[in-house]
Amino acid sequence: MKTNNLLALILLFLVISMASQKAMGRKCESQSSTFRGLCLKYSNCRQVCISEGFTDGECKGFRRRCYCSKSCD
């Protein structure tokens, strides 16, 4: 009996998590094609990404590159 309850709880959790991911949408990300130099300031990266047609941007990685993002939906 306990195994059935545990299985049902796991399935419920999976269904809820899948539904919430679908509601949030997918995020597409790409390295900026116009940003030059080290990415040290979030606001600079974000402005360049917006000018490229994305909705946001952030500095990432050891090499500090500017990555742009937008909703894929």
Automatic annotation (TrEMBL):
InterPro entries: Defensin_plant (IPR008176), Knottins (IPR003614), Scorpion_toxin-like_sf (IPR036574)
UniProt key word Signal: yes
Intracellular or extracellular location(s): Secreted
SMART domains the UniProt entry points to: Knot1
Knottins-like domain sequence ranges: 27-72
Signal peptide (from-to): 1-25
Pfam families to which the protein is assigned, alphabetical: Gamma-thionin
GO cellular component, as recorded: extracellular region
Origin superkingdom: Eukaryota
Alphabetically ordered keywords of this record: Disulfide bond, Secreted, Signal
Primary location group: secreted
Protein's GO biological process: defense response
Protein name: Low-molecular-weight cysteine-rich 75
Organism: Perilla frutescens var. hirtella
